Amino acid sequence: MLLIVFALAVFLFLYPLVIYPPLIWALARLFPRPVKKSRPADLPTVTVIIPAHNEEAVIARKIENTLSLDYPKEKLEIIVASDGSTDRTVALARGFVDSSVFLLDFPVRRGKLSVLSDAVVRSRGDILLLTDASALLRPDALLLLVENFSDPQVGCVSGRYVIARDVTPHLDGRGESERGYFEFEVFQRRQESLFHSTLGAHGAGYALRRNLFPELPTGTINDDFVIPMLILSRGYRTVYEDRAVVAEAHLATTRGEFRRRIRISQGNFQQIRLLLPALGFKDLRALFIFFSHKVVRAFQPFYLLLILLLPPLLGGPVFRGVFALQAVFYLAGLAGFLVSRPGRLVSVPLYFLTGNAAILYGFFRQIRSGKSSFRPQWEKS
């Protein structure tokens, strides 16, 4: 029985990492659903929504970047929605004397979701582009996103997130590991998009049809995942536009990155409970992708605990070796946590260890949040 449990834990751990990626690649080639892209002569109107809380360091550059996009000026509306900013964010945004730039100054901090919903009500564009204040779009990014909406089945389009090296002062081993993880994610998103739909979107920049913006439950954490998934549950596709590049600096400290991943992990467990009933069995392709990419992976730390604890109980030289190798790996991760700039040798185990610790923390925080009132506040990406 212990051997069966061990084998099942190993399978569930390996499935989203080494089995699902080639499987979705094969399915995307055997049963592709390419998007019918085209650039219409009469481009749709677009409202760019930039939620902001204390973004004085980046907001001016963000507005300038948005105004410089290769898109007809008369078709573009830019809304800066300040969520109780106490710095110069509002003053800097108000300083732009441009007919396409509008400021929504909410003096009381309510959280990103409330501000975002109010900005959508105020918007006039047929297409919404939701983007972080710290993210910079390449000039052609908006046009490339919009091309996908020529396909009536497309409801949401995610741009491609990249780490902007030119504005990142130092990318250590931990940052390189994160960049490697993003490339792994990008590969899967490409294949999922070709097969049917990708899961969620990069919060740095994604577009959707305004009439499909969903009503979100109070307390939703990962809005950039839940919004596209609720659109998907209504029978539309969420696709990945690899050419629409959105760049951000990688400035997170190990501690700050850990807090961010806890929040995301908590949101993952929250969205499993929310989205499984919404998806149901209406779309088996979407359900397969969701289970394979999100649900199975969400419980990864529990598989790892079984893989670590069962070998000593199973006995024998093979299982003792398995236990020893894991111990060395985790000790290397702990060693990387103790240094300010971990090198490449320990950056992978450090990234792996902190990521799974954050998942566990997020799991128990989500359980606790169900027993008390929870209202997520603004947290920078």
What does this entry look like structurally?
Strand 1, helix 2 and strand 2 (76-83) form a beta-alpha-beta unit. 39% of the residues are buried. The protein has an eight-stranded mixed beta sheet with strand order 3-2-1-4-7-6-8-5, with helices on both faces. It has one domain (1-381): Spore Coat Polysaccharide Biosynthesis Protein SpsA, Chain A, CATH 3.90.550.10. It has 381 residues and is an alpha/beta fold. Helix 1 crosses helix 10 (300-314), helix 10 (300-314) packs across helix 11 (317-337) and helix 11 (317-337) packs across helix 12 (344-369). The radius of gyration is 22 Å and the shape is globular. It has helices at residues 2-30, 59-67, 89-94, 112-122, 141-147, 173-195, 223-233, 254-279, 284-298, 300-314, 317-337, 344-369; strands spanning 46-52, 76-83, 101-106, 127-131, 136-137, 154-163, 205-209, 237-248.
Offer a quick outline of the entry.
The chain has twelve helices and eight strands. With 381 residues, the protein is α/β, with parallel strands linked by helices.
Main beta-sheet annotation: 8 strands, mixed
Please give the radius of gyration in angstroms: 22 Å
CATH class, named: Alpha Beta
Q: State the separation between the terminal residues, measured CA to CA.
A: 43 Å
Return the CATH topology.
Answer: Spore Coat Polysaccharide Biosynthesis Protein SpsA, Chain A
Any low-confidence stretches, pLDDT <50, length ≥5? 371-376
Number of strands: 8
Question: Descriptors for this entry?
Answer:
single chain; 381 residues; alpha/beta; Spore Coat Polysaccharide Biosynthesis Protein SpsA, Chain A; eight-stranded mixed sheet; 14% strand
